[in-house]
């Protein structure tokens, strides 16, 4: 695997993650500012993941889950190939959602809130996505 293939794989994974989060936001229907929050939730979520991964006070399992999620997203292949309409991105969306839910439940709402870099509405959307109560 060349460096360019790795870079393209990571870029594609980030784009797929963003798309999955936008779809989740549309389904969850945040109160207002959907477009702004949809655009902001991926960078905020990535910063949240980085901050949680760096927090040594959280259980090791949280950091392991985040590392596995990033490895999966960086892989150039998926469970269902992305060229298959709708279903191709569904596996990414399901895995991202499951990983975020697992991390959120293990780390707890207080840890997420302490590390969240975005707006309150973005955090509320993240809580709805992960199934936590804000």
UniProtKB/TrEMBL annotation:
Protein name: DUF1232 domain-containing protein
Record-annotated membrane-spanning stretches: 6-28
Keywords: Membrane, Transmembrane, Transmembrane helix
Topology relative to the membrane: Multi-pass membrane protein
Domain DUF1232 stretches: 63-97
Native organism: Mycolicibacterium litorale
Domain of life (superkingdom): Bacteria
Keyword Transmembrane helix: yes
Subcellular location: Endomembrane system
InterPro entries: DUF1232 (IPR010652)
GO cellular component: endomembrane system
